[in-house]
Design brief:
alpha/beta; Quinone Oxidoreductase, Chain A, domain 1; Rossmann fold; seven-stranded mixed β-sheet; 22% helix; binds NADP nicotinamide-adenine-dinucleotide phosphate; binds zinc ion
Length: 347
């Protein structure tokens, strides 16, 4: 086993601070990675605060990992020492159930292993994430990173990227569709970039008037300020698809009203109770409310390759690991443009 420096919180109210953790010895199908960069997802904050009731402490968050391969197990053929690689929200699954066989490891019938906060099958205890210098991951869950992109700005693709790309693909967003993205944060700014790259007419739906210019720079054709109900009403029954990234329970009714007949709004943010949904908003025009969770490994690689081909990366603000607690506060107060990424050299 290898001792590795990491940043952890000991309970929900504690600040993150440096600790030593252990990484396992290489198994035959393992890849050892020195971590260069790790994105800061709003899920890291939900998890640390135990918002979803499943927190395990000490918690080492981080599931937008970019690094260099330092060693591979004897049966690994798809990665080699020196490769630039990524690790997202999952580090293992059974790889042999109906979901895994359809490349949807996140819905593994036997339970996928999250990068942090899951049972650690090898060392006991729970898995520890990317706010650390080094990680050991089963080869199937290690992604290849296009080397022509700005490496530090690629890190957020591993979660924010796939979480927005996957539903846009699943609901077949195409040229000419009117697509709304609700919430201009880490996920939302990737959602707008992808929808624009897929040829859609894109509309940023935001609570923040001051983000309107940025939304247009990121690829939005129009901006709706969601607090302005008259502006919202002008767009009723006009959207082909809406991707909703709001991170808390909220009133979905005004957003459902925006959809055309038979169309879908997909939630990715609010993993908690929603306010009451008025049935009329679904029934009267046969509308759909759906959800989506990250994406499988095959689709994550497809998304990374799509980003390589279309020169898509995240807009990042680099931080040292010592600034992580301030970064958490700033994400919570909606003050990030549009993803913090930790430079792991600082640890
Ligand atoms: P983020 O950077 O904080 O962005 C969220 C955006 O939502 C904010 O920038 C803000 O945009 C808007 N917003 C915040 N609070 C709001 C409120 N009370 N009402 C209306 N709008 C609000 O967060 P993120 O990293 O993009 O993550 C978004 C959510 O997705 C989190 O809950 C995260 O845990 C979840 N998530 C889910 C998955 C999945 O697989 N389903 C994967 C990753 C993350 P405006 O200023 O534009 O309004
Ligand atoms: Zn995430």
């Amino acid at each position: 086993m290898k001792d590795v420096k990491a940043y952890a919180a000991q309970d929900k109210d504690a600040a993150l601070q440096e600790i030593q953790i252990k990484r396992r010895d290489l198994l035959d199908n393992d890849v050892a990675i020195d971590i260069m960069y790790c994105g800061v997802c709003h899920s890291d904050i939900h998890a640390k605060l135990n918002d979803w009731g499943n927190a395990k402490y000490p918690i080492v968050p981080g599931h937008e990992i970019i690094g260099k391969v330092t060693a591979v197990g004897s049966s690994v053929s798809n990665h080699k020492v020196g490769d630039l690689v990524g690790v997202g929200c999952m580090v293992d699954s059974c790889t042999d159930c109906s979901a895994c066989n359809e490349d949807m490891e996140m819905w593994c019938e036997n339970g996928s292993t999250s990068t942090y906060n899951s049972k650690d099958k090898h060392l006991g205890g729970h898995t520890l994430g990317g706010y650390s210098k080094h990680i050991v991951v089963r080869d199937h869950f290690v992604l290849k990173i296009p080397t022509q992109l700005d490496t530090k700005a690629v890190a957020p693709l591993l979660c924010a990227g796939i979480t927005t790309y996957s539903p846009l693909k699943h609901w077949n967003v195409k040229k000419g569709d009117k697509v709304g993205v609700v919430g201009l944060g880490g996920l939302g700014h990737m959602g707008i970039k992808f929808a624009a790259a897929m040829g859609a007419e894109t509309v940023m739906i935001t609570t923040s008037e001051e983000k309107a210019q940025d939304a247009k720079r990121l690829g939005a054709n129009q901006v709706i300020i969601s607090k302005d109900l008259d502006q919202m009403k002008e767009h009723n029954n006009s959207f082909d698809f809406i991707l909703n990234t709001i991170p808390v329970g909220h009133d979905v009714n005004p957003y459902l009203a925006l959809l055309k007949r038979d169309r879908t709004m997909c939630l990715v943010g609010a993993i908690e109770p929603l306010e009451n949904i008025h049935g009329a908003n679904l029934i009267l025009r046969r509308k759909n409310l759906a959800g989506s969770l990250i994406g499988g490994i095959k689709e994550t690689q497809e998304m990374l390759d799509f980003c390589g081909d279309h020169n898509i990366t995240s807009d990042v603000e680099m931080i040292d690991i010592q600034d992580i607690n301030t970064a958490f506060d700033r994400v919570q107060s909606n003050d990030v443009k549009y993803r913090f990424v930790i430079d792991m050299e600082s640890l």
